[in-house]
Amino acid sequence: MNINHIEPFIEATVGVFRELFGLEPEYLNPYLVQKDDRNEWDISGIIGIGGDSKGVVVVSLSGQLAAALTAKLVGGPVQLDDPDIVDAVGEIVNIIAGNAKKGLEQYRLEISLPTIVKGPDHRIAWQQNVPIIGIPFKIPMGRFHLSIGLENIITG
Amino acid sequence: MKKLWLFFGRAVMNVLTGGNKGLTDIGQRSRVIFLNAVTLAGAVMISLFSAISLASGNLPLALACAVAAGVVTLNFVLIRLFRLYLLGGIVDCVVIFVFYYYLVLSGGEAGSGILWINTYPLISLFLLGSGIGSVVALSFGAAVGLAIFTPALNAAAFPPLYSARVMGTYFFIWLFSLIYEVVRTNTLRRLEDSNRHLAEASAALRAEKQQTDDILAGVREGIFLLDGELRLGTSHSRYLETIFQGDQLAGRSLLELLKPLLPAQDYSSAADFFDLLLAGAVNPELLAEINPLSEIRCLFPAPDGQAHSKLLRFAFSRLGAVGAAGAAGAAGTAFSVLGVVVDASQEYELQQQLSVEERKHKQSMENLFRIIHVDPAMMREFIGDTEAELDQANELLKTEGTDREHIMVALGSSFHAIKGNALLLGLEEFAAKVHGYEDTVKELRSRGHSWRDLLSLTVGLGEIRGDLEELNGLITRIESFQALTVSRDGGAASLLQLSLDKFVQKESSRLGVPVSFDFRIAEGAAITEEHRKLVKDVLVQLVRNSFAHGFEHETTRLKLKKNPRCAISVQVDEQAGSLVLRYRDDGNGLDIGRIRAKAASLPLLAGRAAALSDQEVIKLIFMPGFSTARQTSLDAGRGEGMALVRNRVTAAGGRLGVKNKPGQYLEWTVTLPGMAVAEVSSA
């Protein structure tokens, strides 16, 4: 895994929170995600990567945080089951994918349109033999999580 | 004036062709022109006759002629309108038949009416064709014969012999007209045939040319012909223009095109090669072998000023005598060489990438080779241990709020342990990689670290995990076809002994230090699976220390009257429920003076070093980062090893003791409490 492929996603993620919500996420320690780890996330946006590297980048949030962020966007209280939440998370992940793309222009990487997955303790079908780096972030309203699993196609 | 003539000519042709512009067939066209001409001439003549008859007072004849003139004129109009040329011809023939016959029967001036009949075969054959025309002409001849041989009808009163000559003349005129008509129609038919063949041949040629053009336009190779001066021909594949980045290549010399793209030396060897090629004295196989352009890097100027490099592959072949003559016949120039060039830049890049992959593959094969020579169980053990190390480090990362410096120390320690285990099995590539991470940790600890550095190390952990998974896959595959050769009855202890023994032998041969290794487990004592990893980590570190610091050179040992062969012994005992490991090497022991000197050079201890007791000096070696080695290598120098030993032993609630006899031996005693005693080693 090339750290240069990862950084644009981290910057884009932090950038979205900074610009859209005026929040400065705190970087917590990164770690290796085990494929069968239980997680506390209720909603995830998945961005597929192709080209010189293959894999997925996942942004995960708890339902509480997703609702709080949606409330900030729509400017009113939002219930946990409000369908706006999926739209809002979809939009956030879209912006992350779009901004990350700018940072990846020098590499031959393709970025797919993000997909949203919902449900308590949902699992991501990670590729085999690819280590997954988990990066937790903390904001006053809660935590969110960036998981990155990219395969090295050509290792120069 | 000229325009007037032109108009006049067009008008005449319009009248004679009946306004039909579609008459492309030359036979048909001439027939129509003749028909219209005869009809018009007939109408004029018969009208003239009618006028003369009227003037001479012969009213019935004048009337009959007027009617006939009317019929012929009508015929002319109908031909123009309906274009029924055969019908028009028949009408003309019938009218002329009647008119001429009237002239014969009436005799005319001095019997001159008979003279007109000689035009009839010409008219009928030409208007109606050789078949119907002959029938009509011969019928007319017979009718005329009847008139001039029958005295009652013979108005001009020709003598029979004269009549016979008239008929003979008529017959010959018919015969020659027939021959002429047959020859003419056959000639026309042949002309048409050959015209059709020509049209077909040219269509086929056009289609073939189109195919050739399509090939030349679409082929991903530059294909071209060269003449004796190496000038390019006009027909070449379009890709040639792509390769040379320009059009209008025809007529330019290939050598001149190459000159700015090649280094001078390559250019001159190319010029020499072309001389040989054109001379035709060298056989084609040899020529292909010495072709300096068979794979050549050309530098093309790019718009942004930077040269753009392409790898081109040229192949040339001399055209045979037949090909050269053919080309010369068509274009007037003799082409003597056929050339093909391909752009292999992409292929080259792919090959480069492939060789990188191959190197990687080779490394995997080395791993595989290593695995085959090691008991898979040992390899599994290594993977399990390394995974445990990774998990331990990862747990620390996951625990929120863990201090980064603390993580760095733990990571350094884990990397060190993993490296040791990898070296134990001879996985040198793997060990070198981990050694790199360990170096990074060391450097980061000295110069300060950021969150990004931690991310990069986490990626490193991920890489190690990826390699482990790969190794695991290899082992699984090997196990599926390799029978286990090593008895596993001895369980953990036996595996441990085996792997340590291998490690010692490997280090011994790598460093050129002959060593004997003795490993004993006292009766009743056993290393359980639970403690195996700890014991192994400690022993591996102690073995590495012996090699790095303890053993003297062979000659020194001889001087000291020691056995030139160094010795390591491990004794495992049970004492009051604790497991006691005694590790001894017969090396030089700890060099207290050197450790003290090293301590004195450290800012932290500088003032106190001299005042420390020997026991306190020995404790210094457990400080993380303390090492007496002058350079860091895979063997020693980081100062992590003994720190690792102490940390692990104290973490397990054990004690560490040392007996140092300088110049004779160094003995470490590790006491681990709570060891199962009665239990016999389990597999």
Structure description:
The complex is a heterodimer of chains A (156) and B (683). Chain A has 156 residues and is an alpha+beta fold. Chain A has 3 helices and 8 strands; from the N terminus they run αββββααββββ. Chain A has a single domain, classed as Chemotaxis protein chec (3-Layer(aba) Sandwich), CATH 3.40.1550.10. In chain A, strands 1, 2, 3, 4, 5, 6, 7 and 8 form an 8-stranded antiparallel β-sheet that branches. In chain A, helix 1 packs across helix 3. In chain A, 37% of the residues are buried. In chain B, helix 14 packs antiparallel against helix 15. In chain B, strand 8 and strand 9 form a beta hairpin. Chain B is of the alpha+beta class. Classes of the chains: A alpha+beta (156), B alpha+beta (683).
TL;DR?
The complex is a heterodimer of chains A (156) and B (683). Chain A is an alpha+beta fold.
How many alpha or pi helices of chain A? 3
Q: What radius of gyration of chain B results from the CA coordinates?
A: 58 Å
Q: What overall geometry of chain A do the principal axes of the alpha carbons give?
A: globular
Give a short account of the largest sheet of chain A. 8 strands, antiparallel
Detail the topology: elements first, then pairings.
The complex is a heterodimer of chains A (156) and B (683).
Chain A: H1 3-21, E1 26-27, E2 31-33, E3 43-51, E4 53-61, H2 63-74, H3 84-103, E5 109-111, E6 115-118, E7 132-139, E8 142-152
Chain B: H1 2-16, H2 26-55, H3 59-82, H4 85-106, H5 120-128, H6 130-149, H7 160-218, E1 222-227, H8 238-244, H9 254-258, H10 264-279, H11 284-290, E2 296-301, E3 307-318, H12 321-331, E4 335-343, H13 345-372, H14 376-398, H15 404-424, H16 428-447, H17 451-481, H18 491-511, E5 515-521, H19 529-550, H20 554-559, E6 566-575, E7 578-585, H21 592-601, H22 614-619, H23 641-651, E8 655-661, E9 665-672
Parallel strand pairs in B: 5-6
Antiparallel strand pairs in B: 1-4, 2-3, 3-4, 6-7, 7-9, 8-9
Helix pairs in contact in B: 2-3, 2-4, 3-4, 4-5, 4-6, 5-6, 5-7, 6-7, 13-17, 14-15, 14-17, 15-16, 16-17, 18-19, 19-23
